[in-house]
Write the structure tokens for this entry.
Amino acid sequence: MITYDIATKSDLNQLSELEKDVFEKHVAFSKKDWHKLLQNKRVMIHVVRDKEKIIADIVIVKFKLLRWIYSLAVAKAYQRKGHARRFLTQLLFFRKKCIFVLEVASDNIPAIKLYRSVGFETIALLKDYYGPKQDAYRMMKK
Ligand SMILES: CC(C)(COP(=O)(O)OP(=O)(O)OC[C@H]1O[C@@H](n2cnc3c(N)ncnc32)[C@H](O)[C@@H]1OP(=O)(O)O)[C@@H](O)C(=O)NCCC(=O)NCCS
């Protein structure tokens, strides 16, 4: 059974494991990073669970009506099954007054297609954002 909720400190290990599954080591949040994120009052960590297991997370930083999508990950075994689209669609639906922004690597085609499919538009090209020749797009959804 798939459920949606907010992560708590007891999810630290699972969030860390999911991160290792999805991201390369040099970009993945460490356990210490997750610990800090879980303590930060401006940060909401939304998760999708399959029974008890966390299969996806979205890290959102709040500032007034602005919501910055800081990270999004779906476990490899659960990718390409519509989880990210349903997850995002639900988040956006319940926060219609908010403005969402995010940055995505310009070569991350799966993520760019996903964000476009739920209504995000590219508002800027950020040259060398992730390092030399590693550009990003800033995308926004009002
Ligand atoms: C990007 C990511 C979150 C997508 O999650 P997902 O649950 O697999 O995505 P969905 O199944 O909901 O797919 C929604 C749409 O995204 C696009 N998409 C997703 N994966 C894709 C892929 N591998 N190749 C091309 N398009 C893809 C498609 O347009 C898809 O719609 P379609 O299936 O109708 O064609 C997932 O691949 C992931 O965790 N990637 C690694 C981490 C990452 O890049 N995060 C984003 C950082 S900004």
